[in-house]
Each structure stands twice: as C-alpha cells, then as structure tokens.
Design a protein that fits this description.
The complex is a heterodimer of chains A (about 250) and B (about 100).
Chain A (H helix, E strand, L loop, with lengths): L12 H11 L1 H20 L4 H10 L3 H12 L4 H12 L1 H9 L8 H9 L3 H12 L5 H26 L13 H13 L6 H17 L4 H17 L7 H5 L7
Chain B lengths: L1 H23 L6 H24 L12 H16 L2 H17 L4
Classes of the chains: A mainly alpha (about 250), B mainly alpha (about 100).
Chain lengths: ~250, ~100
C-alpha cells in the first residue's frame, strides 16, 4: 500500500488528469456555495473585489479565508490573521504528510505544484484514488486543478452578487458564516475523539471572546483546546485522519 | 495595503504547511503531533461557530442568548441529520427570520 509502484510508468498522463478533474466535479456543488458566500462576506468586511479574488487565488483555503474575513471585520491585524491561518491550515501538514509516500517519485517541482493546490476535497478524492489502486500523480493533479477552477469562479460569482446586496447584516446574512461552520463542525462531532476538544474549545472561546482583545480567542481555542486534549489523551491510533478527511462541505 | 499584507502572509504560511511535508517528509508524522493537528479543525470550528452566536460583537462584548443561538441550534440539528452544509444554512436562516418575525432578537 505504501509502495506506489502502480503509477511508476505514467500510463496516459492526460487521461489520468482528465479522470481526476471529472471525478471532482460533484464536489463543486459543496464548495461553490462557500466560494460565493466567502466573496459576499469578504466584500461586506471591506475587502475590495480584487483583494477578494486574490485571496481565493493565492491562499485557496476556504476555512482560512472565512476566518480571515471574520477577523478583518472584527478589526484584527495582519499578524493575528496570519498566525490564525497557520493554526487553521496546520492540518494540511497532516494531509500532505500522508500524501507524500504516494508522490515521492515525482520531481520536487511537481510535488511543489501539487502542494500549492492541495485542499480537503482534492486530497480526499486523490487519496481515495491511491487507496483504490487507480490513483496517480496525474489524477491528483486533475483533482487539484478542478477545485482550483471551482473556487475562483464561485468567488467571482459572489463578487458580482455581493455588490448587489446592500448590507448583509441587516438581513442577518452575517449568520451564514457561523451556520456554514456548524455544517462543517457537527459532522466532525460524530467522531467521539473530537468531542472533548470541541467542549474545551467552547469554554476557551467564550472566555477568550469576553476577556481577550480582537480575535485571539480563535487562536486560544484552536491551538489550546486541541493541544491540551492531545496531551491528555493517550490514544494509540491516529484517529485524526478519519476526522480530517471527512468532506464536511459536501452533501 | 494592510489587507494585501494579510493576504501575502496567509499565502506564505499556507504554501509552507502544504509544501513542507511533500518536499521533506518521507514517513509518518509522530503520534502526538498527528493527534494535535487532527484536533485543530474541530477546535477552531467550535470557536468560529460559538462566538457570533453567544458573544455580542463590538467594543463591549457580553454573553447574549437570543435568535442567533436558537437558529444555530436548529442548524446543528439539520447538520447532524443531513451532514449537508447548504441545508444547514437554509434552515438556520429560515429559523432566524421566523424568530425575528415573532419579535425575538
């Protein structure tokens, strides 16, 4: 399983790439609404259309972008947002680390290119391809580029919609942000192993939001609750990957 | 200008965490690190969900129990039963607007 000998001779790079691209199309349905909602809330938070699109192209990480927009709206600075992005996206270390054995024979430049567009969705689809024995670097590239098509496109749609919506908060549309994260969070809570961290994070969030300045509660709860629970629990199996690869945004 | 700086910082750290394992790692991450990183999303999502629902925004934050929290709980039920983010948003917003109609804020 860890020996990816099945993709040593690239059998039809173009066909594999296309297969990966098409395999991810259903996941567009789950991600595209987020791209639209992200753009709408980014404009509401004061980002320009160019900045809104640039973040989708350069950062390309939904949860981090939502968080950054929320923190901008709360008046947080670049350092706090960058640090929170690091904490939020630290999970990519895990995704990339587990993907590494399968793509190790690709050139460093190709591995770097793979890394640039790695997301939860494309990782889940590409990895399931590898595990089923029909994956390849080209298939993974196809998955990645598929999501990298969907996300900026939906951002542009959101930018066009957002300039029509006068004041989202007046209609309670700012509630879409926590609601969309409930959609991501609750399925994670099906995993027993995730519940203590969520409970501790809830306490740290309320305390941090009441007593700490700005948006530092995100960092406090995000890094603190997970770190403390990881320290205390001495489970042997890395049940973490199962929780991570759950495609939260997809129906 | 501040926003552009923010975007650059976000891009750099995001590329770093995506690229470093693929470029450097050859084996599995150590167990404790894997456990920690694996729990980060659930902790961060909890923080992001809870603050707008129960703590008021602005210079004088305080605990508030109202329509946003109730709508959030409705959304949580939908999310539990369907695992569907779009359905969670739609039903949660419908609950919120219904609560506003009957006067709960």
């Amino acid at each position: 399983m860890t020996d990816p000998s099945f993709n040593r001779p690239p059998p039809g790079w173009r066909a594999d790439f296309r297969a990966g691209y098409l395999a991810l199309l259903p996941l567009w349905l789950g991600a595209a609404p987020f791209g639209v909602i992200y753009a709408v809330s980014a404009l509401a938070a004061g980002l320009s259309p160019a900045q809104t699109l640039a973040m989708s192209l350069l950062v390309f990480a939904g949860a981090a972008q939502f968080t950054a927009v929320g923190m901008v709206a709360a008046g947080a600075g670049p350092f706090a947002i960058t640090l929170t992005t690091l904490v939020l996206n630290a999970r990519h270390l895990l995704l990339a680390a587990s993907l590494a054995p399968y793509v190790r024979q690709a050139s460093p430049w190709r591995r770097l290119l793979l890394a640039l567009q790695l997301t939860d969705e494309s990782y889940a689809m590409g990895m399931s391809g590898f595990l089923a024995g029909r994956g390849s670097v080209a298939f993974q590239f196809g998955c990645n580029l598929s999501m990298y098509t969907c996300w900026p496109l939906s951002t542009i749609v959101g930018i066009m919609l957002g300039q029509v919506i006068p004041n989202p908060a007046a209609y309670g549309l700012d509630l879409i942000f926590p609601l969309s994260f409930i959609g991501l969070l609750v399925p994670l809570l099906r995993e027993q192993a995730n519940r203590p961290a969520a409970a501790l994070a809830a306490l740290l969030t309320i305390g941090g939001a009441l007593w700490l300045p700005g948006s530092w509660y995100v960092l406090l709860a995000g890094a603190g609750a997970s770190g403390l629970v990881a320290l205390v629990t001495q489970r042997k199996a890395p049940a973490t990957l199962a929780a991570d690869s759950t495609p939260g945004g997809t129906p | 200008m501040t926003i552009w700086l923010t975007i650059c910082g976000m891009a750099v750290v995001t590329i770093a965490v995506r690229a470093l394992p693929l470029l450097l790692l050859r084996g599995e991450p150590p167990g404790w690190l894997g456990r920690w990183l694996g729990l980060v999303p659930v902790a961060v999502f909890t923080a992001l969900v809870l603050r707008p629902l129960v703590v008021s925004a602005g210079p004088d934050p305080r605990l508030t129990i109202g329509a946003p929290l109730v709508a959030g709980l409705v959304g949580a039920v939908v999310a539990w039963r369907t695992s569907n983010v779009v359905a969670t948003i739609i039903v949660g917003m419908a609950a919120y607007w219904a609560l506003r109609l009957i006067g709960l804020v």
